[in-house]
């Protein structure tokens, strides 16, 4: 019987490696889109300054130096994804410990994979479909509080939707496997659709912003999260797998 400390250490280590690899994904596919979005923002700022003239608004004509340079931001990307991966790995280990007995499978690896899939749907996919992320050049600074609150609310709803799907799936299991699968899908979808209809619609993307760049950034962001959760699920599944290795079986 593994102790909680052992499971937690495994989660932290797996989360660290998953965060590093997710950061690599974000660096390769996400950072070029961020640079392109910043270039568009800077071009628009220069055009606005030129239209108003330097003499009338001298303060606005001066470019504000960012608090952190782009090189610093790129380096900080790996630090951020690593810390996020470690924190997520720790939370994943805690959730695995608390929910393991309620997961109806005798295999720890399958339990870890199922928990990772449910976490990705509730924590990432449901909020993404309602409020997809925007690059730096998109968004009104005055609405950042509203956008943060609605996103966190959507995250909570995503977890509730997963719980509703699991609960309805188990209730419908008495009528067969098809009913169990249909019940899980219905419980998840109905909860998500009801929440989407209630939550406010937020769209601050300018009409002049390139749609291709926008969706490339969004899919890069989704891919980063998918990489993190995929590696976390498979890595933790390997870490907690109780099946004997082939070498031990052959030796026996």
UniProtKB/TrEMBL annotation:
It holds the Pfam family CbtA. It comes from the Bacteria. Residues 47-66 are annotated as: Disordered. The chain crosses the membrane at residues 7-29, 75-98, 110-129, 149-169, 181-199, 219-239. Keywords: Membrane, Transmembrane, Transmembrane helix. The keyword Cytoplasm does not apply. The keyword Transmembrane applies. InterPro entries: CbtA_put. This is CbtA family protein.
């Amino acid at each position: 019987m593994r102790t909680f400390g052992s499971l937690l250490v495994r989660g932290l280590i797996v989360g660290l490696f998953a965060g590093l690899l997710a950061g690599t994904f974000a660096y390769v596919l996400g950072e070029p889109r961020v640079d392109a979005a910043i270039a568009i923002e800077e071009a628009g700022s220069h055009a606005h300054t030129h239209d108003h003239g330097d003499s009338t608004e001298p303060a606005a004509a001066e470019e504000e130096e960012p608090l952190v340079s782009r090189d610093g931001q790129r380096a900080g990307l790996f630090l951020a994804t690593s810390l996020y991966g470690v924190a997520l790995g720790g939370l994943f280990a805690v959730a695995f410990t608390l929910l393991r007995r309620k997961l109806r499978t005798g295999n720890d690896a399958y339990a870890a994979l199922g928990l990772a899939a449910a976490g990705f749907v509730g924590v990432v996919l449901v909020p993404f479909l309602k409020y997809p992320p925007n690059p730096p050049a998109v968004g009104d600074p005055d609405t950042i509080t509203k956008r943060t609150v609605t996103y966190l609310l959507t995250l909570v709803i995503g977890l509730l939707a997963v719980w509703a799907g699991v609960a309805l799936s188990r209730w419908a299991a008495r009528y067969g496997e098809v009913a169990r699968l249909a019940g899980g899908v219905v419980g998840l979808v109905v909860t998500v659709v009801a929440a989407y209809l209630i939550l406010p619609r937020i769209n601050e993307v300018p009409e002049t912003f390139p749609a291709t760049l926008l969706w490339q950034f969004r899919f890069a962001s989704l891919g980063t999260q998918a990489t993190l959760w995929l590696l976390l699920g498979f890595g933790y599944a390997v870490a907690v797998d109780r099946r004997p290795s082939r070498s031990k079986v052959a030796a026996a």
